[in-house]
Amino acid sequence: MKTTLTGGSAVTPDHREIIGEGPRKGQQRDYVVLSADERAKGFVRPVRRAYRHLRCGTVTKMGQALAETYACDPEFYSGTFCCSCGSHFPVGQAGEFVWDGTSEKVGT
Ligand SMILES: [Zn+2]
């Protein structure tokens, strides 16, 4: 399936570089998402913008393109960011995140 960066531009080799300081410290420079065309084909899950890290209890919010990519293809990502821990952790059935307000694991 066709992918882009979150703003719709082409995927760059350095997008996974981790930001060292500032408000986005610990996050990747950018994230890969399904292209707008792919996302327009429809969702198999609700579009959810917030998830909770089970280890620390903190809720992290994400942008629309990322949320829609999860809704299109729940297993697209292997991990996600926690804004409190400042790092990425696994998603999926054995992962560390649930959608906020549910017991449903992110990435399933
Ligand atoms: Zn955390």
Word description of this protein:
The strands form 3 sheets. The chain has a 3-stranded antiparallel sheet with strand order 4-3-7, with no helix packed on it. It is globular and about 35 Å long. It has 108 residues and is an alpha+beta fold. The protein is built from 2 helices and 7 strands. The protein has helices at residues 36-39, 64-72, and strands at residues 3-5, 32-34, 50-53, 59-61, 79-82, 87-90, 97-99. The structure holds zinc ion (ZN).
Output mean pLDDT: 97
The secondary-structure class comes to alpha+beta
Largest sheet: 3 strands, antiparallel
The total beta strand count reads 7
Instruction: Give the helix level as a range of percent.
Output: 10-25%
Q: Note poorly predicted spans.
A: none
Number of domains: 1
Number of helices: 2
Bound molecules: zinc ion
Using only C-alpha atoms, the radius of gyration works out to 13 Å
Q: Which series of helices and strands comes N to C?
A: EEHEEHEEE
Q: What portion of residues belong to β-strands?
A: 15-25%
Q: How does the overall form come out from the CA principal axes?
A: globular
Gap between N and C termini, in Å? 19 Å
Record the strand order, biggest sheet.
4-3-7
